[in-house]
Each structure stands twice: as structure tokens, then as C-alpha cells.
Amino acid sequence: MDIVFELHNNLNIRIDTVNYNYLKGVDEELTEYVKNYMFTPRFKSGVWSGRISLFKRATRTFPYGLLVKVLRYTKKDWPELSYDFSQDVKELFNGISFSNFKNDLIFPVHDYQGKAIQVAVEKSKGICQLPTASGKSFVITHIIKHITENSPENNSIIVVPTLQLIDQFIDDMDEYGIDIDTIGRVNSNHKEFGSDIVVSTWQSIKNNLEQMARYNTVIIDEVHGAKADKVLELLGACPQANFRIGMTGTMPNHPLEYMNVMSLLGPVLIKYTGKDLANMGYISHCTVKTIKIFYDDDLNEQKYDYTSVRDMVFLNRYRLGLIQHLISKTNNSVLILVEKVEKEGEVLEEILTTAFPNKKIIFLSGRDKAAVRDKARKEMNNVDDMVIIATYQIFQQGVNIKSLRSIILASSTKSFIRVIQSLGRALRKHVSKEIGGAELYDIWDQTKYLAEHGEKRERHYIKEGHEIQEFELMERMGVYGI
269 and which of 126, 132, 278, 409 could share a cystine (Cβ 3.0–4.6 Å)? Predict the structure, then answer.
């Protein structure tokens, strides 16, 4: 046998071969440029190429999550070589049978959800890429329920990105019909590690890593945002965990970041986009309305740096008036996403509170406790005429507002993750969206720096298959033709 793949430890696979050219090829296959490498001092000084490899030459090992990638490379570039696997590697992606699955929670399982549950329990390791509003918490609940029914000694931990999502996740599981007495919280006030199912953030368990030895099933929600070293530390603390599943709506665009996410948990087992589920009728259609603003002032002069341009544009009276105009023409609640707390969120809160005395205006940021943010989320589901201003950081992951129909991107961003997650906020199915669907207003400032951001956002919308309507406004005209 030319190549044997064997388990080096619970997180890495070793290649046993005497073919050094093949090892060099694997090394190159698992090498990518670091994001923004060209701006680093080491690259500029010529001491670093800007690339890193996830293959360790000294031990001939690579993360188990990249096994499928390595096998594809082997078959494509080295078809003449024979290969085999040690028994523990053969068993690495063996889960449990799906044949006795019980669709017996309060809500029925949709076809795409059933496929995600099946591939997760059968393969045991990997990533389910399901868009925001697809019911990821429902899928996770069924995965854990099925594993527990077939492995009575199973203990599960769900790792979510924010404290706010701990309570939301448990509320969701309660709504689905799970006995919440079996669910434990781990945060600053609770350390319920002994429960059958535990919901926690990474920050809440990092000082209690010895507790991870309890769990046979680890599910990491919004895995695209998890820090690689933290996830490695977490998974390394539970070597006995057979089920290691990542859930995300959006895999990173950057090749190295994409490969890093896979290396931690495994390949993408199943993938649906928001457009896929909208076409199937499971989530709302969302129309993206890009609004290009051409300003009177020349902000392209060299004397203006990036921060100055952003701040001047955000405080522009015509632009602030556009946001007020967009709110006034809707008869439903609106979510406005901003980047900065003092210079954007607080400014908008003051302006909109004055402009709309009969609307409830709330500004939420990382300074607000999880309970406060969760209360606002629940209130928006029950109030028809509410405006929430929030920072991207707290509202881009996992926040569930089914009634939300309108989102305004008030701050420029080029982040693929932020754009797609923000879109997802408006995709959840709700009776109020039956006419007209949901809408996202993207303010595309025609200035240096920010115009390029808008171009990148538009490419994201096109890639995801959303309908785009374009509008052009000129400050000198003083009107809003939208």
C-alpha cells in the first residue's frame, strides 16, 4: 500500500508513506494565503510569503476535518497511488442509523431539515450549512434528540456565540416540546454542567474545560465565527465525543478561513442557501434595494482618511433624512444596523426619537445585557411599529425576529458574513410577510472607500440569488425617489 491514513490523535490524521513528493503535494494543497497578508510587517520586509499550511511536516499530520479534501487531491493528482485507512480512521465518520427517526416534536420536520438531521447523525462529524431562518435550532434539537434516543448515556453540549442566545435557544427547545428540566445553562450565574443537554457560550466554559469530558455530543452553532484556537481547545478537552457537528448559515469566503472552519469539525455535509429555501416556500423572499447616494461635497480628496469619510457621510443631513424617509414609508417594525455606538447608534437614537414621537425607538449594543436584548427581540415580534437600532456585532448571529420585514444597513460594511447574516434577519417566515415579502435597504455611499464596499455587498447579494432593485439619489436634488 502506497499511502495509509491513520489516526494520530482525536483531532489529527497522520499520513504513513515513503513518497515524499506526495507529502509535498499535500502540504501545498493545504496551504493558503492569510487574509490581508500583504499589509503585515513580516510580508513587507520579505521574511514571510504570506501563506500558511495546515499540514504539519514534522509529524505528517493534518486536521481530520480536511480528510475529504486530501482524498480528493489524492484521487485527482495521484491516481496511480493506492491508499488505505486504519480501522479508527474508517470509523471516524460513522454515526448512527437514521431508520428509526421519530418526527414527533410539536412542529413537523421539513424535507430539507430531515436531510440535514440524517446526514449529521449518520456521518457524526461535519458542518451543516443552513441559512438564517431555516430552523437551525430545530435541526439541532432533533439531532440531539435522535442521538439520545439511540444512545441513552449520551450527554450533549451546544455552544452558541452570545449569552443572549443561551436563553433564546432554551426557549426554542421548550417551544418544540423538549422538557426544559433536562436542559442546563452555563453562564456567569449558572453552572449546570450535569444536565443531559447544556447550552453555553465558549466564554462561559473556557475556565471549566475539564467539564467537557462529560459530553459525547458537541454542537457548535454559528461555527464560522468561532476562533480556531478556542474550538481546538474545546474539542481537545472532549476526546471521547463521537458527534462533533458545526452549524452555520454562511461559510467564510476567504479560502484559508473556509479551510480552517472545515479542519475543526469536518466537511460541509449539506448546504442550502436562502434563495433555495425561499424558492421552496419555506422562508420569505427578500428584495434588496440598493440606494446609491451622490453627495455635493467632494469626499474623495486625499486629505480625508477612511474614518473621516465614514463619519462625515453618516452625519450628512440628507443621508439621515433618507433613513427617516424609509422609516416613515413603512407600516411595520424596522431594524437599523450600525457599526459604531456613540457616533452612529446614539446619534440615530436621538434623531429618530425626536422625529417619531409615536414610535418606540430602542438602541441596543454590546453594553446592554443579554436579558435586555432578548426582551427587545420578543417585543418586536409582538409590536407592529417599533424601531430597533443595533450594532452589527450583536444582531448578526442567531437572533430570531420572525415578524421583521424591513432592515436598513445604515453603516457601510464589506463583510460577507455580516451582509448575509443581516439578510437572514428578514427571511424568517411570518404571516405579516405574505404580501410583498421582506426588504433590505442598502445605503451605498458614492465616495472613496465606501463605494467599493457597496460593490462587494452587491456581489454577495448576486451570489446568494436575491432580487436587487437599484436607486440613485443626488443630495443636490433634496428629494427621495424611493
Answer: 126
193 within 8 A of 236, measured Cβ to Cβ? no
Say which amino acid occupies 442.
Answer: D
Please indicate, yes or no, whether residues 326 and 365 belong to a single structural domain of this protein.
Answer: yes
Sign of the torsion formed by the C-alpha atoms of 432, 140, 143 and 283: positive
Strand 51-53 and strand 31-33: the pairing is antiparallel
pLDDT tens digits, residue range 215-254? 999 999 988 777 777 788 888 888 889 999 999 888 888 8
Domain that includes residue 42, residue range? 3-90
Whether 473 contacts 322, CB under 8 Å:
yes
C-alpha 200 chain-centroid distance: 17
- Give the model's confidence band at 425: pLDDT under 50 very low, under 70 low, under 90 confident, else very high: low
The DSSP letter of residue 427 is T
What's the CATH code of the domain at 205?
3.40.50.300
Name the nearest CA neighbour of 450 among 309, 278, 328. 309
Distances (CA, A) of 44 to 37, 47, 364, 452: 9, 8, 40, 24
Backbone angles phi, psi at 344, to 5 degrees: -130, -60
Q: Which grid coordinates belong to 43?
A: 510580508
Amino acid symbol at 236: G
- Residue keyed to cell 443579554: 370
pLDDT in tens, 210-219: 999 999 999 9
Which residues does 349 contact at the CB level (< 8 Å), separation at least 6?
A: 361, 362, 363, 389
Asked if 369 and 467 sit in the same domain, the reply is: yes
Q: How far apart are CA 360 and CA 382, in angstroms?
A: 13
